[in-house]
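My main concern about presentation is that the manuscript never shows what a single data entry looks like. In essence, backbone conformation is discretised, so a fold becomes a row of integers matching the chain in length. An entry of this sort, consisting of the sequence and the corresponding backbone structure tokens, reads as follows:
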Amino acid sequence: MGNDGGSIPTRRELVKEAARSKTTTQVKETQQEQQSWDWTTCPLSHMPLSQPVVSDCAGKLYNKDAILEFLLPSDDSAKKAESTEYLNGRVKSLRDIIEVKFEVETESKDGTTTRAGDIWVCPITRKRLGPGLKSVYLVPCGHAYSEIAIKEVSSDTCLQCNENYTPDNVIPILSISNSECDRLIKRAEDLRERGLTHSLKKLSGSGKKRKKPTTGDAPNAITVNDSEDVKTSAALEPNVSAPSKNTSAISATIKNANTASLTSKVLKDEEERSKRRKRAMNDNLKGLFSNGATSKEGKSGDFMTRGYSIPASTRR
């Protein structure tokens, strides 16, 4: 039962090298490879990253179309399960992501146009954002900078859009630091307790419930929170016209300018339709009834005053 030479090898002879932990250099090389892949490839669709690029509360980068595909119902259960496992509950709606606005380098240092794809740079230092440079983006505006630029400027407003932000809302992009990851996890938990999402918008279902209208409430006390509610109510109640004086009152209670203008337009259209219906109804009823002063007997009268006369041929 021996080998070619008739000897039986021992375990020590069969094991070439003992298992050992990776060195610091090997760990850094592995992290560098992973960072390069994360900066260039969407982890959900495995396609190259291209604008628009979005990020979740952990600072991961995704293609926006991949997130939309994940949120929509899909028949591919295997891909859905893989994406769900990777996201780990961080993205449940579009409010849980921020569109990262990268500055794109279009010209090289000598003034010639670059032929490469999208090269993301810091708008302040003009250094290339990527695996070799710590980068961050701001919430809620989403503009991306190098970390050193944000620390040196030490301002509480975005330098590109003047949007206010706090130090907690400076999100590192694809950070490998354990302390930064723990900070992001704690930030997400604090926002969830306050009923907010990563984009600082309210969680779905965390808003106050609308009060049911009572008999003593005034018509202009109704608040409209969404244009879809206005369209639905207008479709369900076609015969009710909103007075013009209440149209501005209802629109004034809406904070969003676009929603307010749309609501006002819907209410005005409904009022015009109601007026047209009333005018058409009056014209149709005019022929049914005649004025008492001009009513005549016989054929000149209408059907309400004329009555019915028996033909002469049938009389006995």
User: Anything to note?
Assistant: DSSP finds ten helices and eight strands in the chain. The first strand starts at residue 53 and ends at 55. Confidence is low (pLDDT under 50) at residues 112-116, 215-243, 293-298. Residues 184 and 223 are 37 Å apart (CA to CA).
